[in-house]
Design brief:
The complex is a heterodimer of chains A (454) and B (186).
Chain A: H1 17-22, H2 27-32, H3 37-47, H4 59-64, E1 75-80, H5 89-96, H6 98-112, E2 116-121, H7 126-141, E3 157-162, H8 172-179, E4 203-207, H9 208-212, H10 214-220, H11 222-226, E5 229-230, E6 233-234, E7 236-243, E8 249-254, H12 259-264, E9 278-282, E10 290-292, H13 293-297, H14 309-313, H15 316-319, E11 327-332, H16 337-351, H17 357-374, H18 380-393, H19 401-425, H20 435-440, H21 445-452
Parallel strand pairs in A: 1-2, 1-4, 2-3, 7-11
Antiparallel strand pairs in A: 5-6, 7-8, 9-10, 9-11
Helix pairs in contact in A: 3-6, 5-6, 16-17, 16-19, 17-18, 17-19, 18-19
Chain B: H1 7-17, H2 29-39, H3 46-55, H4 60-67, E1 81-86, H5 89-93, H6 96-107, E2 120-125, E3 137-139, E4 142-144, H7 149-160
Helix pairs in contact in B: 3-4, 6-7
The chains are: A alpha/beta (454), B alpha+beta (186).
Bound molecules: flavin mononucleotide, iron/sulfur cluster and FE2/S2 (inorganic) cluster.
Chain lengths: 454, 186
C-alpha cells in the first residue's frame, strides 16, 4: 500500500519536529530552494494533483493563474475549515502529522512567491490549532520559517487562524471574508482569488490534503507522482469512512481502488456492521449524490466502480456521483432514506448564509417538505415539488452551497422515489419499526405511469 | 462592571495582532472574540462586544454582525458546561438522536436551556469532523467520541461532583501565540 500523506503515522513521535525529521521530513525545502519557483509549479502540474477540497481542480493550473505581475503581496491560504458532513481527514492529518502540512505550506509558498501564509482552522478544532501552533513554533526555531529560511533569500511567516463555527466558511471566498474579520459571505466571482483574494491581493487557496501532497511531489518529482493512481486521478487520496461499517476511520488509498474492495476488505471498511446488507453510499461528503448499492459497486454499464474522479462520475447525475472530499458515508438496509435526506436538508438550510434567495428560501422549503413527508403529512405533489425546488436552486446561486443542498435531495428522490411514495401513501406506517423494509420493497409503478400519462 | 482583559491577556492580544498585516487588525476579530467569550462569562454580552470593538477600533456594529453569524459565539448565558452534541447525517446513522434524547433526559433540560443547578446546557450542533467516531459531542475544548449512555453517565456525574476534566478554555493561552514572536507583519 502506498503511503505518502500518512507515511510514518504509526510512530507517535512524528507529531514533533525530531520525529518528523527522522522520517525524512523537511527535505523538500532543501531541494526546493535550489530550484526556481516556476519549475516547482511545473512539477506540480506534471504530477496531475487535483484539489482535495472537493472540486478536484488541477492544483498546478490553479497555481499558474496566480497574478504574479501585480505589485501587491501574494498570499497562500490553507483551507482547514473541514466541515463537510462525513469528512474528517484533514483533522486527522493535522492532529497526527502537523509538520507535513507546514512543510507543504513552506514549499508551496516558495513556489508561489508568498511571504506570508495562513492556515484557517475551523474554530471547533481548537486543540488541533494548538498542535499546529506548537509545530509552527518548532519550525521557526529550526529555521524553516522566518527570515532567510535555511540561509536562502526566501522568508516566510505562517499564521494559524481559527474560525468560529460556520460551514459556509469552507467556501473559499467566504473563508477569505472570515479571515478578514467579517461574516462568511461568499463573494461574487469574478474576480477570482488568484487576482483579488485576501485583502484584495492575489491569493491561492488550497485544501490541507492538497498542500500536504506537495513535499512528496517536490522530493520525488511530478512524474513519479503521476504514475500512482490511474488516468487523470493521480496519486493517493485520504478517505474518511463512516456510517454502518465495521472499521470507520481515515484511509489513504491509491486512486483506482475498486469501491467494492474499499467497502468489504479488512484493510479498509471491513464490511457492513452486524452482517447487514449495503443499501446506499454517499461517496464524497454529504453534498454529492447518493447512490444505491448496485450503482456504487458497478456503473450503469456494468463496469466495477473505482475510487477515481472519473469512475465515480461515470453516468453523470443519472447514475453516477462524485469523489468530492472523500467523505464516504455507508448506509445499511435499516436506513430510512427519507429521514436521512431530511437530516441533510436541515443541515443545508441551517448553513445557508442567506445572501441569495434561491438558496435561502429553497433550502427552507426542502427541509419543510421533507419533514412533512417523513412525519406522514406529505402529499404526492410534495415529492414533485421537492424536485422542482431543488432544480430552481441548482446553478442559480452565488456559491456552490446551493448545488450542494440540491444534489442530495434530487438524487435521493431519483434513486429512492418508492420510499418517498411509501411515506405519502402510508402515513399511518411511517413510525412503524418495519417501515424501512416496507418502503424499500414498495412497488408504485402503476401510479407513476398513470400520472405520467396525464 | 465593564469587561477588561487581564494584563497577560492584553500582552497576548498584542502578539495576536502582530500576526496580521499592520493595517489589517480586523483579521484578529474572531480569535479575539473567542478570548473574550472565555474570559467574560462564557458568552458575548453587548458590553463585551463593545469592549472588543474599542480594542480593535471598530464600530460596534462590525462586531455584533460577526458575533451573530458564527455558531461558536454564544449570545446568551449558558450553563457552566455546554454539551454540544452532533446531530448531522453520519452521526444520526449511528444513534445521535437517541443519545441527544438520553442526555437531555438525564440532565432534565430541553435543548439550549440551562439546567436548574446552572451547570449544564445541551446544544445540538452540526458535523464536527468526527463522523468516524459517532456519536460524539464537544465539551469545552475537547471532543468526546463513541458516546454511550454509560460514558455520558460517567461524565455528567464527574462534572456534578466538581471534578476537573481538562476541558475549560483558558484565555491565557487558548488562542495560540507562543511561536510567532519572530513574525514581521508580512
Ligand atoms: C459550501 C462549501 C463548503 C466547502 N468546504 C470546504 C472545506 O471545508 N474544506 C475545503 O478544503 N474546501 C471546501 N470547499 C471548497 C473550497 O471552496 C475550495 O474549492 C477548496 O478549498 C480549494 O482547495 P483545493 O483546490 O485544494 O481543493 C467548500 C466549498 C463549498 C461551496
Ligand atoms: S448559495 Fe447559499 S450559501 Fe452560497 S452565497 Fe448564496 S445563500 Fe449563501
Ligand atoms: S456527522 Fe457528527 S461529526 Fe460528522
Amino acid at each position: 500500500m502506498v503511503k505518502l500523506l500518512l507515511d510514518g503515522i504509526e510512530d507517535p513521535s512524528i507529531r514533533y519536529l525530531n520525529g518528523y525529521r527522522a522520517h525524512g521530513g523537511y527535505q523538500s525545502i532543501e531541494k526546493a530552494i535550489t530550484m526556481s519557483p516556476l519549475d516547482i509549479v511545473e512539477e506540480v502540474k506534471k504530477s496531475g494533483l487535483r484539489g482535495r477540497g472537493g472540486a478536484g481542480f488541477s492544483t498546478g493550473m490553479k497555481w499558474s493563474f496566480l497574478d504574479r505581475k501585480s505589485d501587491k503581496p501574494r498570499y497562500l491560504v490553507c483551507n482547514a475549515d473541514e466541515s463537510e458532513p462525513g469528512t474528517f481527514k484533514d483533522r486527522y492529518l493535522m492532529e497526527k502529522i502537523p509538520h507535513r502540512l507546514i512543510e507543504g505550506m513552506i514549499v508551496s509558498s516558495y513556489a508561489l512567491g508568498v511571504r506570508h501564509a495562513f492556515i484557517y482552522v475551523r474554530g471547533e478544532l481548537i486543540w488541533v490549532a494548538k498542535h499546529l501552533e506548537h509545530a509552527v513554533g518548532e519550525a521557526y526555531s529550526a529555521g524553516y520559517l522566518g527570515n532567510h529560511i535555511l540561509g536562502s533569500n526566501f522568508s516566510l511567516d505562517l499564521t494559524i487562524h481559527v474560525g468560529a463555527g460556520a460551514y459556509i466558511c469552507g467556501e473559499e471566498s467566504a473563508l477569505l471574508e472570515s479571515l478578514e474579520g467579517k461574516r462568511g459571505y461568499p463573494r461574487i466571482k469574478p474576480p477570482f482569488p488568484a487576482v483579488s483574494g485576501l485583502y484584495g491581493c492575489p491569493t491561492v487557496i488550497n485544501n490541507v490534503e492538497s498542500i500536504a501532497a506537495v513535499p512528496w511531489i517536490v522530493t520525488h518529482g511530478g512524474d513519479a507522482y503521476s504514475k500512482i493512481g490511474v488516468d487523470k486521478s493521480t496519486g493517493t487520496k485520504l478517505i474518511s469512512a463512516s456510517g454502518h461499517i465495521n472499521r470507520p476511520g481515515v484511509y489513504e488509498i491509491e486512486l483506482g481502488l475498486p469501491v467494492e474492495e474499499f467497502i468489504y476488505s479488512e484493510s479498509y471498511c471491513g464490511g457492513i456492521k452486524n452482517g447487514r446488507a449495503l443499501k446506499a453510499v454517499i461517496a464524497g461528503g454529504s453534498s454529492v449524490p447518493i447512490l444505491p448499492a448496485e450503482l456504487i459497486l458497478k456503473t450503469a454499464s456494468g463496469q466495477p466502480r473505482l475510487m477515481t474522479y472519473e469512475s465515480l462520475n461515470d453516468g453523470g447525475f443519472t447514475s453516477g456521483t462524485m469523489l468530492g472530499s472523500g467523505g464516504f458515508i455507508v448506509m445499511d438496509d435499516t436506513t430510512c432514506i427519507v429521514r436521512n435526506t431530511w437530516n441533510l436538508a436541515r443541515f443545508y438550510h441551517h448553513e445557508s448564509c442567506g445572501q441569495c434567495s434561491p438558496c435561502r428560501e429553497g433550502t427552507g422549503w426542502m427541509e419543510k417538505i421533507l419533514h412533512r413527508i417523513e412525519h406522514g403529512h406529505g402529499t404526492q405533489a410534495d415529492i414533485d415539488l421537492l424536485v422542482d425546488v431543488s432544480k430552481k436552486i441548482e446553478g442559480n446561486t452565488i456559491c456552490a452551497l446551493g448545488d450542494a443542498a440540491a444534489w442530495p435531495v434530487a438524487s435521493a428522490v431519483r434513486h429512492f422515489r418508492h420510499e418517498f411514495e411509501f411515506h405519502v401513501r402510508h402515513p399511518d406506517q411511517v413510525t412503524a419499526p418495519n417501515h424501512v423494509a416496507n418502503a424499500a420493497a414498495y412497488k408504485y409503478e402503476e401510479i407513476t405511469h398513470a400520472k405520467n400519462n396525464d | 462592571m465593564n469587561p477588561t482583559f487581564s494584563e497577560s491577556t492584553l500582552s497576548n492580544i498584542n502578539r495576536l495582532l502582530s500576526r496580521y498585516p499592520a493595517d489589517k487588525r480586523k483579521s484578529a476579530l474572531l480569535p479575539l472574540l473567542h478570548m473574550a467569550q472565555a474570559e467574560f462569562g462564557g458568552y458575548l454580552s453587548p458590553e463585551t462586544m463593545d469592549y472588543v470593538a474599542q480594542l480593535l477600533t471598530l464600530r460596534p456594529i462590525e462586531v455584533y454582525e460577526v458575533a451573530s453569524f458564527y455558531t461558536m459565539f454564544h449570545k446568551q448565558p449558558t450553563g457552566k458546561y455546554v454539551l454540544e452534541v452532533c446531530r448531522t447525517g453520519p452521526c444520526a446513522l449511528n444513534g445521535a438522536e437517541s443519545i441527544i434524547d438520553y442526555i437531555t433526559r438525564k440532565i432534565g433540560v430541553t435543548i439550549n436551556e440551562i439546567s436548574s443547578d446552572g451547570l449544564f446546557t445541551v446544544k445540538e450542533v452540526e458535523c464536527l469532523a468526527s463522523c468516524g467516531t459517532a456519536p460524539m459531542m464537544q465539551l469545552g475544548e475537547r471532543y468526546i467520541e463513541n458516546l454511550t449512555e454509560q460514558k455520558i453517565d460517567d461524565i455528567i456525574d464527574r462534572l456534578k461532583h466538581g471534578e476537573r476534566l481538562d476541558i475549560e478554555p483558558n484565555p491565557e493561552n487558548s488562542i495560540l501565540f507562543r511561536s510567532c514572536q519572530g513574525q514581521s507583519n508580512g
